[in-house]
Amino acid sequence: MSAAYEQYLVPAVFRPFAEDLTARAAALRPGRVLELAAGTGVLTSSLLAAAPWAEVTATDLNEAMVAFGSARAPDAVWRQADAQRLPFSDGGFDLVVCQFGVMFFPDRIEAFTEVHRVLAPGGRFLFNTWGPLGTHSFEVALQAGLERAFPADPPRFFATVPHGYSDPSVVAADLAAAGFTVEDEQELTLQGQAASTADLAIGYLTGTPVRMAVEERGGGPAVRATVVEEMTARLGPGPVTAPMTAYVFRAAA
Predict the structure, then answer these.
(1) 139-143, 216-220, 224-228: lowest mean pLDDT where?
(2) DSSP string, 151-183
(3) Cβ–Cβ < 8 Å for 65, 101
(4) What pLDDT was estimated at residue 111?
(5) What distance in Å separates the CA atoms of residue 37 and residue 77, rounded to the nearest whole number?
(6) How far apart are CA 6 and CA 241, in angstroms?
(7) CA dist 137 to 131, 218, 231, Å?
(8) pLDDT band at 220, cuts 50/70/90?
(9) How buried is residue 7: exposed, middle or buried, by Cβ count under 10 Å (0-12/13-18/19+)?
């Protein structure tokens, strides 16, 4: 899963937003950075290059992601960690960053409270979260393919999890409940670019939790073919470019 995610989805979907988040982080001139839900390390690598003076600690709940990321960005300190129970002392970081990870926290206020605890006074929490599913053209096409492949019970992962935390007012309220002051909130639309729609479909079907949902429904090559066909009908065969919208938050401890 980690390899498919890195090969097919990182360049097309995640790198553009990592570059944006890196520029925002580097402008803060942090000395000690903690990254949550670092995945395969796309943001980690970008941070290390843009802010070589900073000490970067990257964490993820998933051991496979930590193993993959530590090989990709070895200049960071890597640790497996639960965002709701961070294994770090109070006030140890100037900046906490998280790229498209907060949606996966079971209790976001608890996780945000932990982030607040490990930040020094005046430290910043910088992160992004996807907008509604309808604002991400790649994933609209993917969901249409899944609904065509499984008309009775299509996987709803993307609508409910990655795009399930897409109300900025809810995010801001959760930050306030954890003791943060929201300094900046922006809606950001960037263009995703993929070599082919088939590559995108493979990435989503094998490099995300949709893989398990499809397997549970007895999916196989026919499902992949149906999804590729539907996505191609909507996006073209490729190269393909399409808009993706996210919200970016910066909050002060």
Answers:
(1) 216-220
(2) SSS---HHHHTTTSS--HHHHHHHHHHTT-EEE
(3) no
(4) 98
(5) 14
(6) 18
(7) 11, 26, 10
(8) confident
(9) middle
As a whole number of Å, the CA-based R_g of the chain is 18
**Amino acid (one-letter) located at 88:** F
pLDDT at 200: 96
**Spatial separation of the C-alpha atoms in residues 1 and 6, rounded to whole Å:** 9
**What is the per-residue pLDDT across 99-141, written as a single tens digit (0 to 9) for each?**
999 999 999 999 999 999 999 999 999 999 999 999 999 999 9
Mean pLDDT of all residues in 132-155: 97
Q: Are strands 55-60 and 32-36 parallel, antiparallel or unpaired?
A: parallel
Find tokens 């639960």 and name the residue.
Answer: 82
Neighbours of 92 (CB within 10 A): 15
Cβ pair 67, 39 in contact under 8 A: no
| pLDDT tier at 1, thresholds 50, 70, 90 | confident
- Residue 8, classed as helix, strand or coil, is helix
Which residues are 77's β-sheet partners? Answer: 57
> Residue 219: phi, psi to the nearest 5?
-70, 155
Backbone dihedral angles phi then psi of residue 84, each to the nearest 5 degrees: -90, -5
- Reference 190, options 13, 11, 45, 10; nearest CA is 13
